[in-house]
Amino acid sequence: MEAPAAAHNPAEPGTVRTVQIVVDSPDEMRELGRRLAKILRAGDLLMLTGELGAGKTTLTRGLGEGLGVRGAVTSPTFVIARVHPSLGEGPPLVHVDAYRLGGGLDDMEDLDLDVSLPESVVVVEWGEGKVEELTDDRLHLLIHRATGDTTDEVRHVTLTGVGERWATVDLSAV
User: Is 133 exposed, middle or buried (0-12, 13-18, 19+ CB in 10 A)?
Assistant: First the structure.
């Protein structure tokens, strides 16, 4: 995994901080999730965006391992959301796949993410344009991979911290 390239912005409320990381394999994507889990806390919202097969669920699997939650983290595509309780003192992981849902928070209202968010780490795959209204503070992970007929395992991950929560977090340490 290549060292992250960071765009350091002044640490003030509303600041957007961005770090780019190159990941060379699924194992490295999982490890990125484990490292990222170390800086997460209850109330954090993560939005994962990327093509099919980009590694969103693999990264979330690493988050679950790093957070020490119960149950195998698998894609919740057909059940929409899964809750993985903590095995220790940490927060539970709520893993949502919004791929099949329409746009906006209204379509996600039945999931009660606004109720779960304060005590959980909430990860929403395909959440862009659907969950931003939940909180002013979120971490957006954009995972880009080569598309087409390729066996290229390289992923370019852009972490963008939005809001006061992420204004002082050193994302380059991930």
Answer: exposed
Tell me what the pLDDT averaged over the chain comes to: 83
Tell me the C-alpha distance between 171 and 39, whole Å.
Answer: 9
Surface-to-core class of residue 3, CB atoms within 10 Å of its CB (0-12 exposed, 13-18 middle, 19+ buried): exposed
Answer for the pair 62, 40: CB distance below 8 angstroms, yes or no: no
Answer yes or no: is pLDDT of 20 > 90. Answer: yes
C-alpha pair distances (Å), 82 with each of 3, 65, 124, 131: 32, 15, 11, 16
**Between 167 and 98, the higher pLDDT residue:** 167
How far is Cα 53 from Cα 65, in angstroms, rounded to an integer? 20
